[in-house]
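User: what does the whole thing look like in 3D?
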Amino acid sequence: MIWLLLGALLFGGGALLDLTRPQARVQTILREVDGVVADPGRRESARGTAERMAAEAETTREAIESFVIRIRELDAVENPDETAYMAAVDAVSDAIDASERRLLEGRMQLRAAVTAAEWSELMELVRPADG
Amino acid sequence: MLLEVNFMRSNTARPGVRAAFLLLIVACATAPRRDEQVAARAGVLRAAATHVAPDPEQRAELLGAIDAMESALQRGLIAGDRLNRDFAEASSDPGAELADLQAIAEGLAANRRASLRDMMTARLALRRGMTPAQWRAFADQLPAFDGDLR
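Assistant: Here's the predicted 3D structure for the full assembly of 281 residues, as structure tokens:
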């Protein structure tokens, strides 16, 4: 259930553009940016930003993975300490929060690097079908 | 939750297995009806708890903890969906200010943290309501998601 909760809150949310499914959506931008952004200079800037965002999205995945391992360690203890579990929850939450803030900053940088039309096109590409 | 207990029982978490596990998180989370998925999984937990706790009083305690887990998750999903829609609407404006988007993102983060804490509290209550032998039997009642983790 923990994993379902994390997964749903992090990767679900069909309407959200780039916070709840950062890996998939940043990868979409990376894949499409060359075809969308016409100017070579802006394209290079946008691609660089998207690559940094992709690396940042990966830290979210790593934070969850570390959390999974930590909970497994705590589960192996005979008398589990609630404080330790909550510390693990706070640690993964802090890591994800920080990563999301950096992703949001990256999003703004990406927005600044492209034209309004290019931005609209990119957003359409990352918008889920149900969004 | 099926994944949780089986992964928990693994003594080793090889990178490939962990990667597969995380992929399953994504696969689960992208199911079209997450509320139904959550309800179905809670049902499996309830069946397992019922199996390992023949005493009615203990069983009621365990089922209450599972109810609390499910409620925490459903509340988090409902609030998260609302915030997601708010973010999508704000984000669609090309002139959206970072501060405005950050405010919504902070709401999402607070919701995620609160939901996770609530669910962890309920999960601990579930575990503490069982003996170690029952906890192991409870885990055994849940189907493996990956034979390598057995």
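In plain terms: The CA atoms of residues 13 and 91 of chain B lie 38 Å apart. Chain B touches chain A through 58 residues (CB under 8 Å).
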